[in-house]
Amino acid sequence: MNLMTNPAAAAVTVDPITLQVIRGSFETIAEEMGHVLYRMSFSSIIRESQDLGAGLFDVNFNTLCESESTPMHIGSIPGYLRGIAQTLEDDEWYEGDVVVHNHPYYGASHTPDLAIVVPVFFQGRLVGFAGNTAHHVDIGAATPGLIIDVPDVYAEGMLFAGTKLYRKGQPNTSMWNYIRRNSRAAQQLVADIEAQVASARLGAKRFVELLEKYGEDMVFAAANQLMDYAERMTRQRISEIPDGDYVAEGWLDDDGRNRDKQLKVKVTVRVRGDEVEVDLTGSADQTPTAYNVPFEGSTKVAAYAGFRKLLLDAATSDTRVPSNEGSFRPIKVTAPLGSIFNPKAPASAEARFTQCNRMIDLILRALAPVMPDRVIAGSSASISFAAYSGVRPSGDYWVFLEVNEGAYGGRPRSDGPDCIDNLMANTRNNPLEDLAMHIPMICDRYELRDDLPPGAGEFRGGIGVVKAQRVLTPAFITHESERHTDAPWGIFGGHDGVVGRCTITNPAKPGELREMPSKFSGLAVQADDVMTYYSPNGGGYGDPLNRPPIKVLEDVLDGFCTLSHAREVYGVAIDLDAETVDMAATEKLRANLRKHR
Amino acid sequence: MARIGVDVGGTNTDLVLECAKGVFYHKVPTTLKNQSIGVVDGVQGICRKAGIAPSEVETIVHGTTTATNITIEHNGAECGMITSEGFRDILHIGRHKRPYNFSLHFDVPWQSQPLVKRRNRISVSERILPPSGDVATPLDEQAVRDACALFRKRGINSVVIGFMFAFLNDAHERRAKEIVLEEMPDAYVTLSSEVAKVMREYERFSTAAMNSYVGPKTAFYLRDLDARLREAGVTSKLRIMQSNGGVSTVEACAKRPIRILMSGPAGGVIGGASEGAMAGEANIITVDIGGTSADISTIPGGSVKIMNPRDTYVSGHPVLTPMIDLVTIGAGGGSVAYIDEAGAFHVGPRSAGSEPGPACYGRGGTEPTVTDAQIVLGRLDPDMALGGDLKLDAALSHKAIEEKIARPLGMTVKEAALGIIKIINNNMALAIRSNSVARGIDPREFSIMPFGGAGPLHGVALAEAMSCKDVIVPVAPGITAAVGLLKTDLQYEHTEAVIVELMKAGPADYARINAAVATLRDRVQAELDGDDIPRDQQTITVIAECRYHGQGFELRAAMPEGPVTSENRHVITDSFHDQHQQDYGYSYRTAEVELITLRAIGSAAVRRIEIPTIAPTDGSSIDRALMFVRPTTFDDGRTLETPRYDRTKLFAGDRVPGPALLHQHNATTLVPPGYVAETLDYGNTRIRPVGA
């Protein structure tokens, strides 16, 4: 189970104390790399949303450490490194090189996530890599910011494969010029790449300092032991799940072009001893649009992350498991080539997030019967990723990417959190005031969704968001979202949540309302048009009649639940004036509801 | 005239008194329910000790955790909020980022423990437009009155008013306050534009809500304390330590209790900075080690750093108020050592606290802690804790480490104890690194200053791990925070949002900047005037918080002398580029620099405590201070017969070679072999390698 990276390291046994010391150093270096990157960067998707990852890697591309930024990046960089190995300019690394890479058929997560990688040399030999990934606003794709309805991967913009931005410390000025001429947001793109370079170089410097302090053999032996440790922890948890094949299915709305065709996601979880396989066979074929998932850089990463949440819950366990390759080893991911989770070139595969979130949601659903107090009910398990853009009077583009939040399903011991990034997403929103001071947009509404209730349950589902963004000048919108047709599932007696929704209106045209599909590309909108997004509400966990009446009262007072919903679904009678529960009436209502089931 | 510093901690209330007769120290148990009982008791006690009447005390400076504890115990005021239509849930949504990446069962503190419940967040029609600040929709005044009626019905008397874009135009917030005070004359009201007139709605609203949440109780505590002191015959001025390291008045803090949320640790950092000056060292890293946690702060060039406002959180809620830049980690004497299910060896962050406490306390604790490891290694003498006031049982320490660590890992008890110390020291070293190296500071130019009773046991190991130049042990390590209270200035801060792209700025922009500076100066001056500080003793500094256009995080830049003009605006931009280079190792010299916030800091020097010097050495042997000799184990694994010296019997210029322990009532200092401890002028100590 030990992947040897350095033969001399195999001979070294690291005592448990030094092991913790080196582990702490690794974690600090990764955090420092991430910190520099997001504090320095210019585009809101990196600096506010923190859509980035950073870490150190050995020569066999094992992750030694990684920053705690957003989950979709964590574990994705080894795929990039394998892709770079196949495509590297000069076919070799020199000290002082800096490589940029984003090719989805050479390991990238998706094209806007550029990786910057710096080789780490120690005593004249290549010993590892420092690298990071970050989501860029615009890399010159077919439509500004995001894409969905495009023919192939070449419509995604600039493709980089093993491209050297610096060779032996010297900048490749033609490449920098090329980049500057091929983006609608060139200034941000270039400055953000510079921030990535600063972060990667810092990581390389710290890596060398660590090697100097403890010696190469000791550091890599410790890295190997830490991977073994993470692997052991994961195997122990898997072995607690009864062996078996667990299956769940769900439906995606459409591929962003063929509106009438839902796409199936089928997840089979095979548990055998201390190993598990996630088999996506039976899921839809690859789509003709960008709605596909790169296998190496995204499908596998999402499956690993799903098990990490389920088995090594950071909030409920005393011990943290290091962020490295070890926890991935007992997990096998299978998706047939040519399917939505493993497309064949030259299919486009940029819009891949919602499928990943749905896969995790279905892994939980599949395992629910055997892990009832570890799983949660169905979450929004989608994302709303909106690209707003327009042309300023100067002729320059403005492009703004916004990640909207979702809601969690009810949980065995608590309600699903409301209005929060879901599963693989974990970004920050953009301060609305900052936004309106700098781009021709203004937010009209940002609140909890109150048009439809969350899934009822002993522990109710989380409540989604309603966000209405108005453009002040003519603009383009591309929106990557999901779940307008298949509501988040309730479980163990909990009710289903509700589906998402997206509308376009204009205050000057009252009564006119356009219901939008969950995905649309490059839509031209007029000044004062408002896009309103409603994220799905989570499903409930457990029987609503077991919800303590006081909690139902609290929900009614807080406007999370109507009086009639309290009565009809929860069997709770409330005196709104006195702000109390009528206990006698409640008991009667509940007895009656139970009888008529 | 006498002055008293009183610092309330979780267990003890520490006091220091300075008067013509000298400097006195005192400790009383903290009265957790109402800290003022212990404070008054302590003040009376220390006056007796010094032999002065309470009426002779001119000033009392107080560091308090009252406001902080409200946020930890979630027992603040039930608040109502009046906010803009369409934005009722800004406080519930926050920044929509989860506290954990990999978890399904996480808690969301701003949702599970909201500062204002949704039922009490009432949105009213009004709208101010960016970027001009013009009123697009007037305030619906009747809706404000209706909200007040609801608050009255619910018995709510603490109100937050937060409107979108109030940082551009606060007219609606101010009008709403007038209405609220008409409807609810006794209400405690906080406006978002008063507490943090800056862009970013969630952070501004959260700051205002936190103020109203902790406000009524904190105000009550401060006024009650003031009254009790008067009853006890103390007529002195009462001053409160703020999170930014400056002191303020009872009335100002009662109105803005968010300014004292970090009052407790601030005293320690200020105390550390002044101890640095006493030792002639400007560059100090303070490490304040308590029972459950350690506070670490880097002080370059003698000036305490203030945190970036984007990083100031209290109990999971952002609070935009100046706080001393410090990191707190779960590493202290009570940190528990354990082996996890996959065999890894951890120390902390969980703590045994004071109940049951470390195994050696004999209060039923069976898990080994850092303190137990110190006992096993002979670094703490079980009969000498708190000068012998606290009896510790070494056998229980030995047993706990043997059973829980040594046997499972196949080590000796000594190896296991050394491992516990090594891991906890490493955790602290990594936190020091995040507060220093990670921000462009070279620790080789810094001294480690350890305090808290057990701090000086860790000093040399931390200095080694960080390659710091030496270790400075303060005069009274157990009471450094209380001393710090008497070393600080009055300080007030105000902010104005002024968003200007500096390279493109024209005459109108400069006029806006200069008008805002004038307003800020007036406001700060008014506060200092209110404290009867003569104008010629007031110092007002204005800072420009800037970022590269398009970035999201501001850094502080210097302002030119006099009004900003096209000729001198480069002072701001140059200073910003330099700061960016310093913090991130990179700057974009040709990029546009955007001013976001102007901040004025007004201060007035207060007379500082003068610690008396001690007698210089008379050339006699240090044996005069020798207490006894016992075995002690050091980091290299050697166990050596180690002399214990009474630190209070050492003279300035005395040099104690390691191995040695220096004992005093509230602290123990470890001097490993190869090091020498030199007693300095005030009874403070410098430890460095022999020959260095």
Report what the structure shows.
The complex is a heterodimer of chains A (597) and B (692). Chain A has 597 residues and is an alpha+beta fold. Chain A folds into 3 domains: 7-230, no CATH class; 376-544, no CATH class; 548-595, no CATH class. Chain A has helices at 7-10, 16-40, 44-47, 77-87, 173-180, 186-214, 216-239, 295-311, 353-367, 432-438, 549-557, 563-568, 583-595, and strands spanning 52-58, 63-66, 98-101, 113-122, 125-135, 163-167, 170-171, 244-252, 263-272, 275-279, 331-334, 384-391, 397-404, 441-448, 465-471, 475-480, 501-505, 514-515, 519-525, 530-534, 574-575, 580-581. Chain A has a 7-stranded antiparallel beta sheet, with helices on both faces. In chain A, helix 6 (186-214) packs across helix 7 and helix 8 packs parallel to helix 9 (353-367). The longest helix of chain A has 29 residues, at 186-214. Chain A is globular and about 80 Å long. Chain A starts with 6 loop residues before the first helix and ends with a helix. Among the domains of chain B are: 71-220, 3-Layer(aba) Sandwich (Rossmann fold); 490-604, Dna Ligase, domain 1. Chain B has an 8-stranded mixed beta sheet, with helices on both faces. In chain B, strands 3-2-1-4-11-12 form a 6-stranded mixed beta sheet. In chain B, strands 6-5-9-10 form a 4-stranded parallel beta sheet, sandwiched between helices. In chain B, a hairpin with a 4-residue loop joins strand 13 (284-289) and strand 14 (294-299). Chain B is globular, with a radius of gyration of 27 Å. The chains are: A alpha+beta (597), B alpha/beta (692). The interface between A and B is large, with 88 and 70 residues. Chain A: Residues 15-544 form the Hydantoinase B/oxoprolinase domain. Chain A: This is Methylhydantoinase. Chain A: One of its GO terms (cellular component) is cytosol. Chain A: It comes from Gemmobacter lanyuensis.
